[in-house]
Amino acid sequence: MKRNERLVDFTNFLINHPNKMLNLNELSKHYEVAKSSISEDLVFIRRVFENQGVGIVETFPGSLGGVRFTPYISDERSREMTEEIAELLREENRILPGGYIYLSDILGLPSNLRKIGQIIAHEYHDKQVDVIMTIATKGIPIAQSVAEILDVPFVIVRRDPKVTEGATLNVNYMSGSSSRVENMTLSKRSLSIGQNVLIVDDFMKGAGTINGMKSLVHEFDCFLAGIAVFLEGPFKGERLVDDYKSILKVDRIDIANRTIDVKLGNIFDENEPK
Amino acid sequence: MKRNERLVDFTNFLINHPNKMLNLNELSKHYEVAKSSISEDLVFIRRVFENQGVGIVETFPGSLGGVRFTPYISDERSREMTEEIAELLREENRILPGGYIYLSDILGLPSNLRKIGQIIAHEYHDKQVDVIMTIATKGIPIAQSVAEILDVPFVIVRRDPKVTEGATLNVNYMSGSSSRVENMTLSKRSLSIGQNVLIVDDFMKGAGTINGMKSLVHEFDCFLAGIAVFLEGPFKGERLVDDYKSILKVDRIDIANRTIDVKLGNIFDENEPK
């Protein structure tokens, strides 16, 4: 394979193996060229990936030396993508009877989900995350998108146990908005002791559901790596959870004028510790 | 940007814009080189993508000429990936009380989902598919994976209507295994008249649920582009649907010996019309 072709192949290979340590000796054998040629290729790839905001290419020296590609977007790009999605949310025909917001089309389009996944992954790129947790139904596509970028599994909490889940661990929780006691359940096999769990969901009001997932993380003897919600809705009073990050925030839904007041969420707050 | 760097950037760009017609004049402007240089780059990229089974790179001549990258895997690669997933299914600790099979870990790992998405997308690459339909909960990750590769939206049918879905269209259907009448619902906004809908799901026995989704497609005045299920379970008697494709098939679950007899599904049948 000529250098030009190798560069194309190598670029494709790195993109499809994110967050993995790739051995330089094996790459050199695979492409049938000296390690120095592989290193030269990496100079080009690194420069382009960093300039274009694709991600970081790190090389590690030594006999076990390797290269690792970590997808990474800039703060500017994260904010830009968030603004693009905020525009979709501001469309007036989204307001449903009762002041609910229709989100299913936004969360059913792969290009939007890729952006949401990148924005959340960006926020947690320097944290140890072993697994993503969400609750059925609309949180699932978000969990899957984040999991893809971080290259970790995701688990789905349900409100009702199913025969296809085997033994489950169940917790009760208070719904934050309606103060009812509810139940949520997760297959016992889903998590191992000591894993770092990132909770994600599509929408949060009183944070009751999020709080339920937090107690599940605890009951599984796992650690909470973080909480990220796509959209934070208006809520009067104190939320059950305050250690969350939101991408977008709705302060007010004006049903009469059919307008939604959409703002950037607290992940863009300057004083927030990152 | 030098040619080497341009090749890296261009490769990344194509991979991230699947199924899109990209204008050659605009690419030439963007990279500040002659169209002939872009065409030369594409020779390398096309050769590698085709040899490595990444996809097809087509160029279209003329003043409106362009280039389009379509992800595509070979029949061999599709079969190979299916065998890899079959191995996971054969693990003995998957059998749950009642003869159910635990799938949540397989369907919660991005690398498996990418494979399943590629296998299904491969099967429908020459069909017009405008939207993917699935039913909550476990079909969702599969729908999302196929939608990503085909670059189309996906919609989620539910068993219970939610206030966040707006007006819904509901159908009743007979559960194939238990002969109960059930209800399923989809937001009216989800589909437009005349769209070509590919139905996907994780598991099929009597095909009652699939049949329900078929009638939903009909009630929305849409067309059925196909039906693809990840796993076809053992079923005695006649299924409600016979025009489906399955990736894998379980003929027998031997609870005493804890073995699952997993075979390739009918998408690999040679006599099946493709």
TrEMBL record, chains A, B:
Keyword check for Transcription, yes or no: yes
| Keyword terms, alphabetized | DNA-binding, Transcription, Transcription regulation
Q: Which residues form the Bacterial purine repressor N-terminal domain?
A: 2-71
Q: Which residues form the Phosphoribosyltransferase domain?
A: 112-260
Taxonomically, the superkingdom here is Bacteria
The record, for InterPro entries, names:
PRTase-like, PRTase_dom, Pur/Pyrimidine_PRTase, PuR_N, PurR_Bsub, WH-like_DNA-bd_sf, WH_DNA-bd_sf
Q: Which GO molecular function annotation, any one, does this entry have? A: DNA binding
**Gene3D superfamilies in alphabetical order:** 3.40.50.2020, Winged helix-like DNA-binding domain superfamily/Winged helix DNA-binding domain (1.10.10.10)
- Supply one GO BP term: negative regulation of DNA-templated transcription
Q: How does this chain assemble?
A: Homodimer.
Which family does the record assign? Belongs to the purine/pyrimidine phosphoribosyltransferase family. PurR subfamily.
Q: Read off the PANTHER family from this record.
A: HYPOXANTHINE/GUANINE PHOSPHORIBOSYLTRANSFERASE, PUR OPERON REPRESSOR
Q: What is this protein called?
A: Pur operon repressor
Native organism is Lactococcus protaetiae
Gene that produces this protein: purR
